[in-house]
DNA sequence: TATGAATGAGTTTTCATTCAT
DNA sequence: AATGAATGAAAACTCATTCAT
């Protein structure tokens, strides 16, 4: 009733939502969206099934909210890559992307899985398409500045490579030489004299 | 005594199985495995639910049989790429792979979706891992023969690119410049003097 | 077309029916009627599902035909027990019944299982009731002739014992001392001086 | 925070489970386990199919839980038979068993039906075997104390009789003279001077 | 007579969602 | 805000029976 309890409510809401997001991410990301039941999410989050419906209208709304939340975190990473030296900026970009791969295995797996279903989860397709286009333009600019002749082709190759790496890493997990491939790309694309 | 000959029965079985495979591929490949019901497959195939269980013990057994069947078709494509000139062989390989991408969109989408589930569908992971290793070795050999200095790195890049292309093509469908990328790769990797 | 082939047909029919009866008895008698599928019977009998429907209108009709057939065989056993000495006749009767228990485990198990379902399989109830009444009267007569004072009570006890033995034997199979119990009963009821 | 107390939830669960047990016992016990569908149980219990699976993992788990629950009730009956006079104890035992027959027709019918299936429902066989052995030992002790010479043989006869009575009662229902047979047994076995 | 592919109604089971408290 | 009992629609799967050959 006092203004104080309103803040407390807010905190409680925040905490519960976080618990739900964490559990959802882990389960959606490993078992897949369809194969994950609300009951299981509730159990993993340590709350009741009913509570999930206090925060989200449906299973699909929960998915969308969770993805939106996490992807926005990813966007922040890109902010910090800019440097005066385009080669350095590209290096930062590559490092950021590999860092993302390392830290967001479950989300990546989930997004790839979702984009597999045509017609459903349009927001995932739209988001992915948007990001890709953005990266492509960014890469073209950087490679041109660095001095690549066929910078358009190379930009497409590099962009495609990123997703190929995501896929390979998803398939092979710890067997995939993420660090080595990162070094290789930096050497190949950021060392142009 | 037997009213239909063994061969007639065999033909009938073959035809029904094909109908089931076709419907399964289309539905699994667009909606995903979990989101596709046996009832829907039956409807699309123009048969009864029960008949599917005359041919396959379970939904998962159907999936596996269908994947095995189609992947074996893919293996046959590789047989025909060999030439005396390694550059020509690589060109054939690239063309075969792009042809595969063009003709097997649904299967690719399905396999990617399946490999998203960790722990389940182990046969998909095993198969994918096996193919990847095979391609990597093949690519290394060809690139070395063609005369690439850092042929190991380049082989890994090329192998990764293939899967990145599959992913991009899956996401963008007709928006993805498959033909252009194919030409680009052939130019970049098969024209080494 | 010739009269000869008619006989042959008859032989074939006989043989097929026997195969079906044998398979049905074994399966119904071990797994139970409901848990046994027509497909399994056909497989065990080495014939096709369809053929069963050439001989019997339905699964239940097959059951009834099979039971009727086997029970009539049992009736024949009783014919041969009669002797001038009532004690000897009773001994023969007991031996016949124990012989029946030994040779018709599956049928006994089936009949007991069927009589478990109230309302269904009325013919089993009727048959069982009829046999029981018949045995009771027979036992009363024999025990009276042998010289038992309370022959009515003893007849009921003996009749009940037979079915208790059937049940115990069914539950314990080879662990049940059928031979010993047989000797015991003969000693107790057929040795009245 | 919790809207209903733990106790309230417990009560609700108890009540629902009881409804399910009651419906199951009646249906399993009259139609048999296999011939009774979950849908029918739900209908008879006045609840939804789904709710049954909130309480039991499977149809078979429901069966086992129900049997365990009821058999434990039966065990309590035996506790109260003991007296200083072995003849009186035996009389109490006989009365308890007949009381059990009168009150648990459906359960008896169910158990007999289940033990008919070889290989399945092992827990029923184990339970039945255990009870039988226990009764046999108890009967031997009592008959010896009462002064029967051939107490081992008589114990086996009496034990077998009990199950024969169960079977006859099951078959003939109200036509079976349960009261008369009870008096007869008490007279025969508990009046030894 | 004999086959087995095909059906469809019915079975067990799952699960997102609702709701009284 | 939080619980978990309850629902009902839909899922996977089974099986007696039919039928063209």
Task: Explain how this protein is built.
- Four copies of one chain form a homotetramer.
- By secondary structure, chain A is mostly helical.
- Chain A folds into two domains: 1-56, Arc Repressor Mutant, subunit A (Orthogonal Bundle), CATH 1.10.10; 59-189, Tetracycline Repressor, domain 2.
- Helices cover 80% and strands 0% of the residues of chain A.
- Chain A contains nine helices and no strands.
- Chain A has helices at residues 3-31, 38-45, 49-55, 59-79, 86-103, 105-115, 122-146, 151-172, 178-190.
- In chain A, helix 1 (3-31) crosses helix 6 (105-115), helix 5 runs antiparallel to helix 7 (122-146) and helix 5 runs antiparallel to helix 9 (178-190).
- The termini of chain A are far apart.
- Chains in contact: A-B, C-D.
- At the A-B interface, helix 6, helix 7, helix 8 and helix 9 of A face helix 6, helix 7, helix 8 and helix 9 of B.
- Chain B binds a DNA duplex (21 and 21 nucleotides) through residues 1-4, 8-9, 12-13, 16, 37-39, 47-54, 58-59.
Helix and strand topology:
Four copies of one chain form a homotetramer.
Chain A lengths: L2 H29 L6 H8 L3 H7 L3 H21 L6 H18 L1 H11 L6 H25 L4 H22 L5 H13 L3
Helix pairs in contact in A: 1-2, 1-6, 5-7, 5-9, 7-8
Chain B binds a DNA duplex (21 and 21 nucleotides) through helix 1 and helix 3.
């Amino acid at each position: 009733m006092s203004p104080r309890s309103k803040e407390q409510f807010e905190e409680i809401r925040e905490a519960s939502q976080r618990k739900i997001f964490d559990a959802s991410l882990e389960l959606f990301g490993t078992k897949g969206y369809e194969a994950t039941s609300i009951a299981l999410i509730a159990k993993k989050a340590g709350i009741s099934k009913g509570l999930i419906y206090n925060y989200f209208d449906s299973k699909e709304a929960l998915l969308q909210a969770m993805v939106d939340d996490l992807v926005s975190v990813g966007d922040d990473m890109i902010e910090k890559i800019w440097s005066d030296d385009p080669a350095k900026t590209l290096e930062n970009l590559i490092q950021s992307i590999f860092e993302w791969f390392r830290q967001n295995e479950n989300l990546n797996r989930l997004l790839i899985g979702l984009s597999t279903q045509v017609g459903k989860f349009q927001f995932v397709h739209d988001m992915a398409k948007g990001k890709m286009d953005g990266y492509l333009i960014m890469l073209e600019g950087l490679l041109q500045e660095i001095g690549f002749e066929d910078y358009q082709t190379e930009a497409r190759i590099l962009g495609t490579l990123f997703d190929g790496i995501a896929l390979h890493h998803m398939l092979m997990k710890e067997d995939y030489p993420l660090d080595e491939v990162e070094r290789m790309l930096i050497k190949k694309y950021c060392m142009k004299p």
